[in-house]
Amino acid sequence: MEVQCYPIAITPGTSALLRDFADPANAAEPRLLQRCYPTEPFGLGFTRQAAPELSEEHRERLAGLLVEQADVFGAGEAARENIERLRNGAAAVVTGQQVVLFGGPLLVLLKAATAIRKAADATARTGRPHVPVFWLATEDHDLAEVDQIGLPTKTEIETIKLGLNPGRAVPVGGIPVDGGTEEGRAALNSALDRASELIAWGPVAELLRDCYTKDGTTLAQGFGCLLSATFAEFGLVVMDASRPGFHALGAKALRSAIERAPELERGLLARSEELERSGYHAQVLVTEGHSLLFLLDAETGVRQPLRRTEDGGWKAGSRLYTTRELLQILESAPERLSPNALLRPVFQDTILPTAAYVGGPAEIAYFAQSAVVYEQILGRVTPVLPRLSATLVDPAIAKVMDSHELQITDIWDAKNPEALAQRLGARAMPIEGKRKLAAAGNALDAELTALTEYMAGMSADLGRAAEVSASKMRYQMNRLRTMAANFQVQREASLRKHANAIMLGLLPEGHLQERVIGAIWFMARYGEELPKLLVENAAQECPGHRVIYL
């Protein structure tokens, strides 16, 4: 196995904020970044900072709820031992994800592996036990986003969906995967059959059925079962915080979001302005009247955003509430109130003794804004650490890349199969043709440069006209190179086939593999050694993107 490390700045899809977060020494606005992210992104400094201590009563209630869920998810003995460590005062390294169908993309495994590795490292360095916790984001209501998984065929990424439709915007975690109907059960069985065909029938296909076909299984339960089984050896604690007991434990954050809404809004508006003024982006649009909360309708279960009204009240859908009424709801039915993306990490860290949070690019961007909420509600900012970012290169793909002398950067630069095929065609041309094109191109460029300089010396207008004409001639020269490369591609059919296979496996649809291809595909292909491999590579002495040749 070979592992290569590439700077995050050249990885496809990297935002300015993520680039500077990963390399704060070269950031354009280092002071702003220090306020958003108070710890080193790839260091272990967070392990020397004590995680918050929770009261014995809080720890007992938390552990009791986690044990109940361990039964639901079929958690193993190692996870139950970690729950007992939390009961006895252990800290937590936390990560999380939406409950995507059939386990979601590879990045889910990368998050879990990073939390496991960081927890182990923190335990070794501090002597205080640290436990990896995976937080299921079950309260979101964007069903279309999670009711799908992408798996590769020989020619494309096929999207498998259940077509779930509860008829209203309810939290996705509690939706049954069979829709509660005969048609839904048929759709589930069809999706499982197709997924099994694409990943090849075997242990992972059997695990998928075990997790998703029990009566009444929800999206949250299926996802939690699959994740618990995959990382059973490492004791990953999986939690669904939509349960009433968890909301009661996190009531402080929810109450603060109600009582301190105006000052939280002012702080978030100021931070968003700061980020945009510095050339970054604000991940969440914050407007006047913005709220950090959603409210479940008591009758329909619909999840609606709460907004503040001009008279100091609140509105969810067409219904108005007073602050007192919301606080009464929090007291009697806390599960009806849920945090938005900016409040969620604070809510989470009110419940858990979090030493650090492991996030992907979007969550890291959330933290730039959430830091304001942390400071005002908890008086501290939890360190955020980047998850392992990796591309797994199958031996067959590696062999094809080697035959064409390709590096991963060649694939990233090409961006699509057609451009990569042209590149392969250019490389496969006879040496004589390459020399003639290079000689003609170099001679043309030299003569045009000399000519435009001469004409510019005669007259500025003549110089500009010469530059325009020279640009057209260079374009035609490049077009000739492209035509020659395309001819070679047509002549050697294997070149296009190779380009398609490489892009499908490593940069599908122009995106990093980890964001598109379902984790179960890799699990089925590489077996029980895959979680160990990812945990090993999650040490992250490589402050960037890893390319792992398997």
What is the strand and helix layout of this fold?
Elements: E1 2-7, H1 16-22, H2 30-36, H3 56-73, H4 77-87, E2 91-98, H5 107-126, E3 130-137, H6 143-146, E4 149-152, E5 157-160, H7 182-199, H8 203-212, H9 219-230, E6 237-240, H10 244-249, H11 251-259, H12 261-277, E7 293-296, E8 303-305, E9 307-308, E10 314-316, E11 319-321, H13 323-332, E12 337-339, H14 344-351, E13 354-359, H15 361-377, E14 384-386, E15 389-393, H16 395-403, H17 408-414, H18 417-428, H19 431-458, H20 460-491, H21 493-506, H22 513-516, H23 519-526, H24 529-537, E16 544-549
Parallel strand pairs: 2-3, 2-13, 3-6, 13-14, 15-16
Antiparallel strand pairs: 1-16, 4-5, 7-8, 7-12, 9-10, 10-11
User: How many DSSP H or I helices?
Assistant: 24
Strand content: 5-15%
> Structural class from helices and strands?
alpha/beta
Which geometry do the CA atoms define? globular
Low-pLDDT residue intervals, each spanning 5 or more residues: none
Helix content: 40-55%
Through-space gap between termini: 5 Å
How many individual β-strands? 16
Radius of gyration using CA atoms only: 27 Å
Explained architecture:
- With 550 residues, the chain is of the alpha/beta class.
- It has a domain at 252-338.
- It is built from 24 helices and 16 strands.
- It has helices at 16-22, 30-36, 56-73, 77-87, 107-126, 143-146, 182-199, 203-212, 219-230, 244-249, 251-259, 261-277, 323-332, 344-351, 361-377, 395-403, 408-414, 417-428, 431-458, 460-491, 493-506, 513-516, 519-526, 529-537, and strands spanning 2-7, 91-98, 130-137, 149-152, 157-160, 237-240, 293-296, 303-305, 307-308, 314-316, 319-321, 337-339, 354-359, 384-386, 389-393, 544-549.
- The strands form 5 sheets. Strands 6-3-2-13-14 form a 5-stranded parallel β-sheet, sandwiched between helices. A 3-stranded mixed β-sheet has the order 1-16-15.
- Helix 3 (56-73) runs antiparallel to helix 4, helix 18 crosses helix 20 and helix 18 packs across helix 21 (493-506).
- The model has no long low-confidence stretch (mean pLDDT 91).
